[in-house]
Amino acid sequence: MTLGPGLRKAVLTTHVTTSVGWLGAVAAFLALSIAGLTSHDVQLVRAAELGMVWMGWSVLVPLSLASLLTGLLQSLGTEWGLFRHYWILAKLLINVFADIVLLLFVQSLGSASYMRSDAPPVHAVVALLLLLVATTLSVCKPRGLTPYGWRRQLQRRLEASRRRDKGAIA
Amino acid sequence: MIQTICIDKLTGMNSHDLDSAPRMPLWVKVFGIAFLVLVLVFVIMALSGHGPGNHMS
Question: I want to staple A33 with a disulfide (CB 3.0 to 4.6 A). Which of A81, A120, A140, B17 is the partner?
Fold first, then answer.
């Protein structure tokens, strides 16, 4: 399956938007969780906790799933592939791990024992670091082909040179 | 041997390239170890009662 240029750009734009949006939402969640944990103002703590619950379900979860889905579409629908380059594989691992942890812990949002523990800011900091690594990988695209990607590249070069050879003979 | 030389001419790659896949870059090894540690920490925390199930009530 190969995406056309228009669709490819649309999926890429959506992927960048949702991924960077997810990063920003985690930063906002971190700020709320710190406010909820450190403030002595009961109303502020309650507001922060409510904000975290709403943000978890209506911003973090949709953005994370959209980021994963558009990332899969983007890699499988283009020449990049999903398992050919280490940086794409690393991003996939980060995204899947972060999604699993998020989906597990978002169900705890609202429970007093979770909201009043230091778990929310710790989770947010780890998620922020992971998403920063993923963003850096996307921008830098460090070199490195997986053994599968290397075999595919070799196969493609052989096919291209055979075609060139046939053309020269004809 | 003759076949190897032919492939080299066709692909423009040297015989070392064709013999084995390129080595895994250092950043991949560093990332792999760090990621594995993170997953292990998560699993250990979950098994030791700090997992998501512990907060659901």
Answer: A120
